[in-house]
Amino acid sequence: MKRVFLVVLDSFGIGEEPDADLFGDVGTNTLRSCFQSPYFKFDNMKKLGFFNIDGVEVGEKEADPTGAFARMREASMGKDTTIGHWEIGGIISPKPFPTYPEGFPEEILEEFSKRTGRGVLCNKPYSGTVVINDYGDEHVKTGNWIVYTSADSVFQIAAHEEIVPLEELYDACRTAREILTGEHAVGRVIARPFVGSTGNYTRTTNRHDFSLEPTGDTILDVIKAHGMETLSVGKIYDIFAHRGMTDYVFTSGNTDGMNKLEAWMDRDFEGLCFVNLVDFDMLYGHRNDVDGYAKALAEFDSRLPGFLSKLREDDVFMITADHGCDPGFKQSTDHSREYVPFVVYGKNVIPGSYGTRNTFADMGATVLKYLGIENTLDGTAIEMLKL
């Protein structure tokens, strides 16, 4: 019985891609920024061969790595969560999702207001932690939605939990998702609830993502169609628009996600457990918090031996990311166009370097081949596993 655990360290890039200039990301390197923090500790990842990955110029290389590893380049035209995860799952997106550096068109907002019964504040790119403090008082007074975006393809709606019930906020997001189609089909509509009072508004853990439905089958659809299980931990369920999963669980952050992953490693199943650990991106990358990011990486590294000790004879444990979000890149708090790592461990893994791959989709193809499923999606399997 083969089980694959695929863990996404959300936004953990390892250096700019060759086309980073097209995205305004020249000079970005999430790993390098975190490595400079005194809180960075990655000893267990080092043993697997993490610092031996192509292009990684920090850290000490492992003489005899126990894992297989590769550097993954994104083939899709984007650098956001949805496009990155879809590509891991076997869909390359040659056309970028729409972005709105000047805010959303009035006809979109008018329709949204009409259907939800509330007005709109802001409507411009904004930091999520700053926007609630700049517009929070007006929102509390008027009840109007705080609508904002970023460099990514997102329509974000912030509302105070004591002013707007969570279910009303979620319904508003579903309405926005229905409106944002065709040329305005953004990658995600995101509910951003918050609490607090003047000068001290803070976001809660009740965030919810409403993603565009994948444009084709993903490894989740294919694995499920072959009668195997597809388990989701964290926001994977939302990223793939609730499609292709046999079971799922949401998380309140990295620690909760790792606890739930560890618990699910005791389950008997054949197939894939797909995990997203969101704090790297949400709490630290987007806030230019280098030390916070480094501490979160150290926490994951400290938990790694516990995960690996639970692996069974035919289990494979995979670690990767979906894009970058360099906390040391002061020109921006947005995602960055970076290579991502792919580190794999298990008794059936053939240790060593597998170079640089041209698409994240090779990861999904590798999962399918190991599970004995013919790949009809994008990507080519990496020959790093004994079948």
Features:
single chain, 387 residues, alpha/beta, Alkaline Phosphatase, subunit A, Alpha-Beta Plaits, 2 domains, 8-stranded mixed beta sheet, 6-stranded mixed beta sheet, 14 strands, 20% strand, globular
Task: Describe this protein's structure.
- By secondary structure, this protein is α/β, with parallel strands linked by helices.
- It has 2 domains: 3-94 and 212-370, Alkaline Phosphatase, subunit A; 106-210, Phosphopentomutase (Alpha-Beta Plaits).
- The chain is 31% helix and 20% strand.
- The chain contains 12 helices and 14 strands.
- The chain has helices spanning 30-35, 43-48, 81-88, 106-116, 128-142, 166-179, 219-225, 236-239, 254-264, 279-285, 290-309, 361-370, and strands spanning 3-9, 68-72, 120-125, 145-149, 154-160, 188-195, 202-203, 208-211, 229-233, 247-249, 271-277, 316-320, 340-345, 352-357.
- It has an 8-stranded mixed β-sheet with strand order 10-9-11-1-12-13-2-14, sandwiched between helices. Strands 3, 4, 5, 6, 7 and 8 form a 6-stranded mixed β-sheet that branches.
- A hairpin with a 6-residue loop joins strand 6 (188-195) and strand 7 (202-203).
- It is globular and about 60 Å long.
- 52% of the residues are buried.
Helix content: 25-40%
Kindly name the structural category: alpha/beta
CATH topology description of the largest domain: Alkaline Phosphatase, subunit A
Characterize the biggest β-sheet: 8 strands, mixed
Q: Could you tell me the radius of gyration in angstroms?
A: 20 Å
In total, the number of domains comes to 2
**Through-space gap between termini:** 12 Å
The average pLDDT value, as a whole number, equals: 97
Shape: globular
Beta-strand fraction estimate = 15-25%
Enumerate the strands of the largest sheet in spatial order, edge to edge or round the barrel: 10-9-11-1-12-13-2-14
Q: Sketch the topology as an H/E string, one letter per element.
A: EHHEHHEHEEHEEEHEHEHEHHEEEH
- Regions with pLDDT < 50 over 5+ consecutive residues? none
The CATH class of the largest domain turns out to be: Alpha Beta
Number of strands: 14
CATH homologous superfamily caption of the largest domain: Alkaline Phosphatase, subunit A
What is the helix tally? 12
Quickly give the CATH architecture of the largest domain: 3-Layer(aba) Sandwich
